[in-house]
Write a structure and sequence with these properties.
The complex is a heterodimer of chains A (about 240) and B (about 300). By secondary structure, chain A is an alpha/beta fold. Chain A folds into two domains: about 160 residues, P-loop containing nucleotide triphosphate hydrolases (Rossmann fold, 3-Layer(aba) Sandwich); about 70 residues, no CATH class. Chain A is built from ten helices and ten strands. The model of chain A has no long low-confidence stretch (mean pLDDT about 95). In chain B, helix 1 packs antiparallel against helix 8, helix 2 packs parallel to helix 4 and helix 6 packs across helix 8. Classes of the chains: A alpha/beta (about 240), B mainly alpha (about 300).
Chain lengths: ~240, ~300
């Protein structure tokens, strides 16, 4: 399958801190690719650079053939990349419905938006029950669902997920991951950042391991999950 | 006049004055909401609004409603220009830099106005018939009705824009979390510009209405109402739109009561005493939330 996203030797700085030191990676159409690694390895920074919230100092990011490195976030989402940020970042003072409407901010096709809203409600029935509620009153799991639903409302080709399991109970984590698989099956390519490497490797096709701003290992997710090094470092033995 | 009637009369006066504060406070609070800046030049934007209205009426010979519209457009564009030239380059600078810049813009507008329109106060022309309506012993004059009517209409329009339109939703989203709003496709620069246009044009209306109410305008007229509107915004809870309106009205009524029952010399002292009390006992304001959001 064709390459959807290609990152070519990017370097990203936070002020004087060199956070990403020459990362290259690739996501092909239809895949689930995961970035795993310890806290502070640069996983979120990588996602934030793809979505345009950070600008790489050097390097190229190619999405569907066009260079998107350095373009502002509000334009990149129009290219078909949508991010579910770390910590969900829902608009707590707005209703569930308004959050979803904002997810469709870049679109003008009222009919299509309505259909996608129904699709999101089918996938996350609890959001429909709570659609007029302030988003800040939702539980952690519901907020994660809202953040994902909101990202889907832009009808992305590539969905970036940043730590979707963070702070959730194990049962909910399993539910969220099966929804991620399902979203992938209906045609959305996924780049997933996770600290929960076990879960991430279990649903991903391929994986990259990040350590202090560099990729140290990459390959087939199943093989990485079985490898001695990865098991020791990230999977608790 | 009986005490209760005097009280009602002061309420009427206070609500008129409070509407003016509310219109200015809305701009403070909207701008704070989106870029966390106390725009100390906002009172001077209001002054420019008064002058634009003045010249529209005296030079272009238009009546009050077109004068208000002209003033809104011109002053709104001025607000946008100030943001683009003075504040935008400092978007990622420390907060104190942009605050000091705002004070600089304030002085600039005051003294540039003195240069261009002279420091001498101007007499605002009488634009509506000087009528007074008597209800029992109470008196409501035409200017007060004009202020109230226009304020109510503008608040209704503002509420509609902020609550119902796509742009309003983008404004609310960006003021809650600018970065995430950008991920939705919201162009933060555009939303910030638009916020300055709206805030400044509301201040412009307040400026023209004050001209109509007090008949006199001068280049330093924005200082005191600017500070008072800031008090109103803090009283209601800075960043919260209904808070600015309620804060403005409460402040106006308290000032009117103090003038009416104690002495008008204490009026300003009362306003700033409120600021101190709010900051001491409820810094988040009447409508502010003390609890943190669930993460």
């Amino acid at each position: 399958m064709g390459t959807m996203l290609k990152i070519d030797n990017i370097n990203v700085y936070y002020g004087a801190i060199h956070a990403i030191k020459g990362i290259s990676l690739e996501v092909r159409e239809g895949e689930i690719v995961t970035l795993i690694g310890a806290n502070g390895a640069g996983k979120s920074t990588t996602l934030r650079t793809i979505s345009g919230l950070l600008k790489p100092k050097t390097g190229k990011i190619t999405f569907l053939g066009g260079n998107i490195a350095g373009r502002p976030a509000h334009e990149i989402v129009r290219e078909g990349i949508s991010q579910v940020p770390e910590g969900r970042r829902i608009f707590a003072e707005m209703t569930v419905l308004e959050n979803l409407e904002l997810g469709a901010f870049i679109r003008k096709d009222a009919d299509g938006i309505r259909k996608d809203m129904e699709m999101v409600f089918r996938r996350f029935p609890r959001l429909e029950e709570r659609k007029d509620q302030q988003a800040g009153t939702l539980s952690g799991g519901e907020q994660q669902m809202l953040a994902m639903g909101r990202a889907l409302m832009s009808r992305p080709k590539l969905l970036l997920l940043d730590e979707p399991s963070m702070g959730l109970a194990p049962l909910l984590i399993r539910e969220i991951f099966s929804i991620i698989e399902d979203i992938n099956k209906t045609g959305t390519t996924i780049l997933l950042v996770e600290q929960n490497a076990n879960m991430a490797l279990s649903i991903a096709d391929r994986a990259y391991v990040l350590e202090t701003g560099r990729i140290t290992l990459s390959g087939d997710a199943g093989k990485l999950a079985a490898s001695e090094d990865v098991r020791k470092a990230y999977l608790g033995g | 006049m009986e005490l209760s009637q005097q009280l009602l009369q002061q309420l009427i006066n206070g609500i008129s004055l409070g509407s003016i504060y509310a219109l200015i406070a809305l701009g403070y609070t909207m701008i704070y909401g989106i870029i966390k800046l106390i725009n100390f030049a906002h009172g001077d934007i209001y002054m420019v609004g008064a002058y634009v209205g003045f010249f529209a009426i005296t030079q272009a010979q238009v009546s009050i409603l077109p004068a208000l519209l002209i003033s809104m457009v011109v002053t709104g564009l001025l607000g946008m220009l100030v943001e683009k030239l003075a504040y935008k380059p400092l978007r990622h600078a420390p907060r104190i830099s942009i605050l000091i810049t705002a004070i600089g813009v304030s002085f600039f507008l005051e003294y540039a106005s003195m240069y261009f329109v002279s420091p001498t106060p101007r007499t605002f022309p009488e634009v509506i018939d000087n009528v007074a309506f008597h209800v029992g012993d109470l008196v409501i004059n035409g200017q007060q009705l004009l202020i109230l009517g226009i304020t109510v209409v503008l608040m209704a329009i503002l509420t509609y824009i902020v609550q119902k339109t796509k742009l309003g939703k983008a404004m609310r989203a960006a003021s809650f979390d600018t970065e995430t709003a950008q991920l939705m496709g919201v162009n933060a620069d555009q939303v910030i510009s638009f916020t300055f246009v709206i805030g400044s044009s509301l201040a412009a209306v307040a400026g023209v209405l004050v001209g109509v109410y007090y008949n006199s305008i001068d280049p330093l007229m924005g200082i005191m109402p600017g500070l008072k509107a800031f008090v109103a915004a803090v009283l209601g809870g800075i960043g919260i739109l209904p808070g600015a309106v309620v804060g403005g009205l409460v402040l106006g009524v308290i000032e009117a009561l103090v003038s009416g029952f104690i002495s008008s010399t204490f009026r300003d002292a009362a306003a700033f005493a409120i600021l101190i009390l709010v900051l001491l006992f409820k810094p988040s304001g009447l409508f502010g939330k003390n609890t943190n959001e669930k993460v």
